[in-house]
Structures are given as structure tokens and as C-alpha cells.
Design goal:
Distance between the termini: 17 Å
Number of helices: 4
Shape: globular
Structural class: alpha/beta
Number of domains: 1
Oligomer: single chain
CATH topology: Nuclear Transport Factor 2, Chain: A
Radius of gyration: 14 Å
CATH class: Alpha Beta
Number of strands: 7
Strand content: 35-45%
Largest sheet: 7 strands, mixed
């Protein structure tokens, strides 16, 4: 199931709008739409710090770097379901407490409990997406396909 379930405060806020649009684009597999949400020099850290997705922990910068992150990771997942349990929007930021369930082509699923922090500029474009999650915790949730 590719979708977003929003069970959190939803008062209008530019960063919250960008967060919701970002999740919807990822869930639907729309790379170009997702990239258009980002400022030209935006930074994506997913997860924040060094990991198997970003060994140096420097993040992915600009449309080229963010697009390469999509191609190398996001596109490798066949299904996404975002469940947002809480959302805090203030200043130029929105922090969302979420659970992301990813499904691979063979039906293997993984659950990622996380806090997703989106920062936007005056035009509402994302300048920073910082995903706080622990890869070891997520990998421990891997479950094979059910028959």
C-alpha cells in the first residue's frame, strides 16, 4: 500500500505543506515532483549522520545529489506507507513523528520509526530534510513476505 496516513495536527503551515507533499510524492513514486519541492541547494540527510546510505554522513546536496539519493535508495523500495502520529510546526520548520513501512519487490517489509524535520525557505521550498532514525533498529524489523 503506497500512501500517507496523517493522524497528527494539520493546521496550515508552509513546512507542513511541504512535508505532506514530499511524503505523497515518495509514496507515489514521483521523483520529478519530489525534486521540485526542494530549493536548488537543499540538503537531505536520511538518516542524519553516517550510515550505510551515506557513509560520510555529509547528506545529499542539491537536485543532482538528492536525485542520486532517490535513484540509489528510494527507487529501490517498491512500496511506502507513511503514518504520521504527531506534527510540530513553528518558524520555518515542521517536525513530524512518523513510522514508515517500506516494502521490497519480494514482499519483505521494514518499519522505520523516525522524526522527519523539514525546513523551508520563503517560497515554501524545502531547504533541509533531516530524517532522524536508527538503521539498526529499522533493520531489526525486517520481515519476509507472507504467503
Amino acid at each position: 500500500m503506497d500512501s500517507v496516513t496523517w493522524d497528527a495536527p494539520d493546521a496550515d503551515h508552509p513546512a507542513r505543506r511541504a512535508a505532506r507533499a514530499s511524503m505523497a510524492a515518495v509514496a507515489a513514486g514521483r521523483k520529478d515532483e519530489w525534486l521540485r519541492l526542494f530549493a536548488p541547494d537543499a540538503l537531505v540527510e536520511d538518516p542524519v549522520g553516517p550510515s550505510f546510505l551515506d557513509p560520510d554522513g555529509a547528506g545529499h546536496r542539491g537536485h543532482q545529489g538528492i536525485g542520486a539519493f532517490w535513484d540509489g535508495f528510494i527507487a529501490s523500495i517498491s512500496g511506502y506507507h507513511f503514518e504520521v502520529a504527531d506534527s510540530f510546526a513553528n518558524g520555518a520548520c515542521c517536525a513530524n513523528v512518523a513510522t514508515i513501512t517500506t516494502t521490497m519487490g519480494d514482499g519483505t517489509a521494514m518499519t522505520i520509526d523516525c522524526v522527519l524535520i523539514y525546513t523551508v525557505d520563503e517560497a515554501g521550498l524545502i531547504t533541509s530534510l533531516r530524517a532522524h532514525w536508527e538503521p539498526d533498529r529499522a533493520m531489526a524489523t525486517l520481515a519476509g513476505p507472507t504467503s
